[in-house]
Specification:
The chain has a single domain (6-120), classed as Rossmann fold (3-Layer(aba) Sandwich), CATH 3.40.50. By secondary structure, the protein is of the alpha/beta class. Helices cover 41% and strands 20% of the residues. The protein has helices at 14-26, 40-47, 63-71, 90-97, 109-120, and strands at residues 6-10, 30-34, 51-55, 81-85, 101-104. The two termini are 15 Å apart. It has a five-stranded parallel β-sheet with strand order 2-1-3-4-5, sandwiched between helices. The radius of gyration is 13 Å and the shape is globular. Helix 3 (63-71) packs parallel to helix 4 (90-97). The model has no long low-confidence stretch (mean pLDDT 95).
């Protein structure tokens, strides 16, 4: 039995967090959510997820800064970060942040599952 893969979702919208939790738990993943990117390195290091979803608009530390902090951290930089936004410039924002990929909101359940599978296989 393979170890359950862990997903960490950062988003300030509780409904999105609940939706992601429902979809990903149903697909067999373990999930942790956070509404803030405060102390991002410690939040991520404490859970050590296999993949991270990062919203663009987060209180205090925005998604770009939070992603850069993860990607500049020697113990965390290997973790794929999926940038997560309703912004039209999402591909440019994901590039600027150094994210591995991006997912537009509103998202399709299949698209969410596919991107997780792709980065965890």
């Amino acid at each position: 039995m393979a170890e359950t893969k862990k997903v960490f979702v950062f988003d300030d919208n509780r409904d999105i967090l609940d939706l992601c939790t429902f979809i990903l738990e149903d697909a067999g993943y373990e999930i942790k959510t956070s509404e803030s990117a405060n102390d991002i390195e410690n939040q991520v290091a404490a859970y050590m997820p296999d993949i991270i979803f990062m919203d663009n608009w987060l209180p205090d530390l925005g998604g770009i800064q939070a992603t850069k902090a993860i990607k500049n951290h020697p113990d965390l930089k290997h973790i794929p970060v999926i940038y997560f936004s309703a912004n039209n410039d999402i591909s440019a924002l994901a590039d600027e942040a150094g994210a591995d990929s991006y997912l537009s909101k509103p998202f399709d359940i299949a698209a969410l599952e596919d991107i997780v599978k792709k980065h965890l296989s």
